[in-house]
Design a protein that fits this description.
The chain is 38% helix and 18% strand. It has 199 residues and is an alpha/beta fold. The structure holds flavin mononucleotide. InterPro entries: Flavoprotein-like_sf, FMN_Rdtase-like_dom, NAD(P)H-dep_reductase.
Length: 199
């Protein structure tokens, strides 16, 4: 088991959108930049376009087909080794995109006793309804969702050509969310080490 005090906290940044022409990677790159600037965090971006997951689940007790197993193998170990997650999500019909739910559902213990922060974007709502629905789903998976979020309302108007938000308040929001994520990630990594989480 990893040393609870050893090394930076591995943070998986998951891009929730797989849409052609999506905006998600711009947001993900921005928050990943903030993560890598911090001495106590590292960032690994998980893009569900680069590593798509199967959408048909096997019957209970049935082994995965080879192709599905290979697709899972490209994602699952990366979630398993993460100490923390940041989910970057748009809002689709007042919720979050189906490929993100699929990625969540393929996994279970990979989420246990780990913190999850959110960066959301959308129209007037800024993706906040997607985030609130994610909290409910992730609670079922024994994850700890972070109170503060970063949200971009009318996202098309608040990012500059350099791929960064124009409002300095976004930087402060990112710092607050990542400070809380870091606290929880340290606390939960140490706790998992001391007493393995039993679901
Ligand atoms: C299927 C679909 C449903 C959407 N529903 C909402 C919505 O409920 N609320 C909202 O603010 N924006 C909604 N939008 C607009 C998205 O927030 C916007 O298109 C955003 O760019 C999507 O993220 P993406 O570009 O990374 O895919 C929707 C977009 C799509 C494609």
């Amino acid at each position: 088991m990893a040393d609870p005090n050893g090394g930076p906290l591995r943070t998986a940044v998951i891009i929730g959108s797989t849409r052609d022409g999506r905006f998600g990677p711009v947001v993900a790159e921005w928050i990943a930049g903030h993560i890598t600037e911090r001495a106590d965090l590292t960032a690994e971006v998980i893009d569900l376009v680069e590593t798509p997951l199967p959408t048909v689940f096997p019957a209970f007790g049935q082994a995965l087909a080879d192709e599905a197993a290979a697709q899972l193998e490209a994602v699952s170990p990366r979630l398993a080794r993460a100490d923390a997650f940041v989910i970057v999500t748009p809002e689709y019909n007042h919720s979050f995109p189906a490929p993100l739910k699929n990625a969540i559902d393929w996994h279970n213990e990979q989420w246990h006793a780990k913190p999850v922060g959110f960066v959301s974007y959308g129209g007037l709502s800024g993706g906040l309804r997607a985030v609130e629905q994610l909290r409910v789903v992730l609670a079922e998976l024994h994850a700890v969702t972070i109170r503060n979020t970063v949200s971009f309302h009318n996202y098309g108007e608040v990012f500059g050509a350099d791929g960064k938000p124009t409002d300095p308040g976004s930087e402060a929001a990112a710092k607050a969310m990542l400070d809380q994520l870091t606290w929880w990630a340290h606390a939960l990594r140490a706790a998992r080490h001391t007493r393995p989480y039993s679901a």
